[in-house]
Amino acid sequence: MSSIGLVAIGRNEGERLRKCLSSIIGSVDNAVYVDSGSTDNSVEIARSLGVDVIELDLSIPFTAARARNTGFEFLLQKNPELNYIQFVDGDCEIVAGWLNTAQQKLDENPNIGVVCGRRRERYPDASIYNRLCDIEWNTPIGETKACGGDAMMRVEAVQQVSGFNPQLIAGEEPELCVRLRQKGWKIERLEAEMTLHDAQMTRFSQWWKRHLRAGYAYAEGAYLHGKPPENHWVRESRSILLWGLMIPILALILILPTHESSLILFLAYPLLIYKTYRYSKTRGFSSSDSALYALSCIASKFPGLVGQIKFYFNQTLGKSNPLIEYK
User: Fold this and answer.
1) Pairing state of beta strands 186-197 and 142-144?
2) Pairing mode of beta strands 4-10, 30-35
3) For residue 54, is pLDDT > 90?
4) Which of 23, 27, 69, 159 is the most exposed place for a label (fewest CB within 10 A)?
């Protein structure tokens, strides 16, 4: 593992961070934890495990992208011979064997810039929100367009595109992958266990904020890379605008002219739920998981719309939004 470095990022992860870093002790010689202003004992936990720690400057807005870039640069200054960097969120534990599997894939395929595997929720039955996370992590195997926060990346590839965009508050990994693919690199998702994620998502407000951030990221991604041939997150952004805004407004505006018959437009929502349910079943999800996922997909259009509005509002004013920063 001398050719692999590891960057863990987090804020107020506590015991989750201990599990994260303990999972790589003895497996990786070069590891750093980058902390985004924790007020708990996260920094002390990392240091007690013998892991290098970087505490980000509080005067600059925190983003996961900024944290990952900082850790990446630190490891390469410490050991310029590193070939690969494993990025991991501080609330995730790396599964035994993953680092070897990922390294072997990259060793054998010099055209692959990023490999990721199966991220699972540690406690999927603790809440419906945890369950939704576990369902959403289950994406198709093989060559893909993007990865998530847990992934092993080729140092050469990351350097070629100058790392993550530190201005993005969410969606920084897919945006990085857009630029990597434009340079000819491939992203691969392996049929292998990679990480266990501990969402600790028990409240509706957490679910709402998660999808608000996603809506913001969709709008920003489309703004940056929405032109053909990439069309990055254009479809997702349009879907949010259609289902979160246009259909409700159209149905309500036409109530008087159509003698309330315009309200029939709201029947499109149960139809979309059913369509999503059927699609989920084709992916091998159980009936209960398919129903839960379908309901969440449609309901998420509304916090997603709020996120999109925030992005365009901030874009107009030329400012960032500290209310939905990383963590």
Assistant:
1) antiparallel
2) parallel
3) yes
4) 159
